[in-house]
Amino acid sequence: MTSVPETAAAGATDTAGPWAPRPTGTDLRPGDGPPHWPALTSLQILRRLESGPRGLVEAEAAERLARFGENTVPPWRAASWPRRLTGSLRDPFTVVLLCLGLVSATVAAWATASVILSLVVVSCVLRAGGERRADRSVAALRKLVATTATVLRRADEDAAPRSREIPVDELVPGDVIRLGPGDLVPADVRLLRASGLTVHQAPLTGESAPVAKHPVDAPEPGGGLFDVPQLCFQGSSVASGSGTAVVVSTGAQTRFAATQSGPGRRVPSAFDRSVHGISWVLIRFMLLTPPLVLMANAALRGRGFETLPFAVAVAVGLTPEMLPVIVTTALARGASLLARDHRVIVKRLPALHDLGAVDVLCLDKTGTLTQDRPVLHHALDVHGRPDPEVLHWAGVNAWWTLQLADLPAPDVLDEAILDAVGEEGPPGYEGVAALPFDPVRRLSTAVVRRPGRLGVHTMVVKGAPEDVIERCALGEDERSRLLALAAREARSGLRLLAVAVCERHARTRDYTPADERGLTLVGFVALRDALAPTAADALKVFADRGVTVKVLTGDHPGTAARACGDLGLDPGDVVAADTIDALTDDQLADLARRTTVFARCAPGHKARIISALRADGHTTGFLGDGVNDLPALHAADVGLCPRDAVDVARESADVVLAEKDLTAIAHAITSGRHSSVNIATYLRITLSSNLGNVIAMLATGLMLPFLPMLPAQILVQNLCFDAAQLAFAFDRLHPASLRAPTVLQPRNFLRFITGFGLLGAAADLATFGVLALALHDAAGSAQAAFHSGWFTENLLTQALVMLLLRTGRRTAEGRTGSPVRWAAAGLAVIGILLPLSPLGPLLGMTALPALYYPLLAAVLALYTGALAVARSRYDRQATGR
Questions:
Q1: Alpha-carbon distance 881 to 878, whole Å?
Q2: Which of 127, 145, 355, 734 could be joined to 672 by an S-S link, Cβ 3.0–4.6 Å?
Q3: Tally of CB atoms within 10 A around 591
């Protein structure tokens, strides 16, 4: 191990903030000053941690464990029932209903108060129960990232160090650990020794290829913290090689844990913004209704506070009081079907609606568009022509390196070559020696004895083109030509390996890297990322659903462009993310609108790009699985991650996938749109119908000497209508209604409910004329008959509205019909039979004369025709035709 002089190094770092020298190790704080770690030598690191190459004494380790705490990240806790119920009460409609219920109780209108408060309780319980079930489902997906680590500890100062396995949560700063292939890095560590060590940092950086790591004492300028070769971080894993390292940070002080705190309070989602926009417009009108009704009745009819229950009932009649229940039922049903059929867990129910509104999906390349392994693309000779001989020699190198170097598993590039060769091993060859891949020299060498070549060894070298060509016997012009050929292949997004051979006289002494000279270049092997099998089909589904895909990756621009092109996704001009640092938010929004692929993305770049897309009016989803994806998961309207993502990413996401499969996301978006369309349909129908009823009741209430409907009748009517509208949560839709995102836009909603509300009010007022005609001979029973007639007409018109204004009503539903049809039929039956039943007199209603029914049928026929014409006109305007 090399090191710089202690005095020089110390002089460079003595003023480095918290890393300034301390008198004793008792002042040690793990995780102090990560930016300064590369500036310290291994010896300085060990001295600051009061440790050494032989590891800690057991007593000191126990003391540090008590002082610094366990090497764990803060646990996830589900919200309690009281907290969920309290959260449900924050819904604006629920708050207004509570206020109206309290007003009714104040004036002793106990029936009205009881019905309203029952609606509130049912709504809150259903909503809290759905979210709790979703949390229980995702809690079952939690699993540990690592369990044990190999550590060097001593019984006392004079004892020899002993290697043993301990639970990861018992690691402390200053522990010396050993890393081997397949190990998960259990904490942030500084390498003391390493042999061929490469580390997967994809969970931290998004970079798909393993990164070479080795001890370096002399500070190396440039690059980010994750590019420093002597540092390894919790959350990464060892791909190959081995190493010994000292733990510098544990628990909440690691880079892995530091990101889980997130940006704080979540930005309101598209669902939250749209529902709240509509809610507050209606709430203002609802709050104005009771005083207006009171003042109008007092001025025109001389009625006083006896009309207060009627005024409250009218306000409740305008309220979509079942909105929380419909929303929770529709979303919970969609989430349940996703979990059952596609193994997609929706943690936060409103996220399913946001998925339906997604029009931009941002995702990484590795593991999503491509698999975490390369495959052979082609093999070229030195002139750029296809040549199977090059692949043959590459296979010889890969096979005998694996056999003779006693590697636990082949390198991913060697594995791709062996898969392409399709042999158990090159026949007839006999392995002599192997020099495995070294991340410093970037080569691997196999020495073999060929059939019929006695006394001759063939050295087969494979590795980075620049390093192999440098060791070949070539003229300067030829060397430049070959490097240009290699660069051209690399620019097309391929990973390139050069293959060279040479012959040596057989010998018994060992081969060394010094023998890798005077080679003859055979050609190049080009590999590309293996495409995810379902990615191409899923991208077509996204395009059909109006979802634009943006690729935000930490990989090389050429590699990302190549993968997108192979899948049929036009990458356009790939933008390196570091170029956006100088852009303003408006400039970035314009660039993000035009760009499909952003490469070399750091975590902050991903979050900023997503924020720019949201500011541009898009509803965004982001699929990520690593610590580096946390800022983007929080920035998106919907955060998605696979089940095998790191714990902290899985807990931060809104939706968890059983596998990192784009097809599952396509199903989730479709399910979200299904729920969103049903919720929007409920809102359109209930608000337009309620508005029409309220206008008609207010108008006739001022013309009649009695109230047009009693408060109890209004509430029973609302309960029947609300119960029937639960069917919207289970309605089947035509596929055409799912091709575009569904966004609740307040202006469009108000235009819809105003137009169709006025049409409904006209039908109600026409019914007023029919009742006047049918009841002209009635005397004492006129008031009860009027209430009965209007009650029947209201439920029948509401049944018609449910059928004619619902989305996807042209769906071929077969013989069984849809839930909405059955609910509308039930509503109509109740409207006709309830006044005739024994419950009718209890509600102040009576039987109607026979003349009323044909006159009502004529009104309903005209209303049906008007609804059909108005809906057709509205649809043409909505589609711009």
A1: 8
A2: 355
A3: 17
pLDDT confidence of residue 524: 95
pTM: 0.67
Q: Is residue 303 pLDDT above 60, yes or no?
A: no
Q: Domain range for residue 564?
A: 346-370+533-667
Domain count along the chain: 4
- 364 is a catalytic site residue: yes
The tokens describing 541, both together, are 């589904």
Q: In terms of domains, do 392 and 517 share one?
A: yes
Q: Which two tokens stand for residue 814?
A: 């077969």
Q: Residue 441's pLDDT band (boundaries 50, 70, 90)?
A: confident
Catalytic residue among 91, 364, 387, 515: 364
Distance CA 462, CA 487 (A): 17
Residue 831 in tokens: 């409207």
Residue 622 lies in a domain: yes
The 3 state secondary structure assigned to 467-533 is HHHHCECCCHHHHHHHHHHHHHHHHCCCEEEEEEEEEEECCCCCCCHHHCCCEEEEEEEEEEEEECC
User: What's the mean pLDDT in 717-746?
Assistant: 75
Structural domain contains residue 794: yes
Residues 428 and 486 in one domain: yes
Do 854 and 708 share a domain, yes or no?
Answer: yes
Q: Are residues 100 and 315 in contact, defined by beta-carbon separation less than 8 angstroms?
A: yes
Both 336 and 359 in one domain: the answer is no
pLDDT on residue 620 = 92
- Does residue 177 lie in a domain region? yes
d(C-alpha 880, C-alpha 763), whole Å: 29
Nearest CA among 89, 99, 88 for reference residue 315:
99
- What three-state secondary structure class fits 774? helix
* Selection from 52-61, 400-409, 678-687 with the highest mean pLDDT: 52-61
The answer on 350 and 316 residing in a single domain is no
Per-residue pLDDT at 408 = 59
Q: How far is CA 425 from CA 199, 378, 411, 729, in A?
A: 28, 20, 16, 60
Confidence of residue 391 (pLDDT cuts 50, 70, 90): very high
Q: Identify whether residues 417 and 477 lie together within a single domain.
A: yes
Q: End of a domain among 530, 546, 562? A: 530
Q: Which of 467, 499, 530 is the last residue of a domain?
A: 530
- Say if 117 falls within a structural domain: no
pLDDT number for residue 814: 46
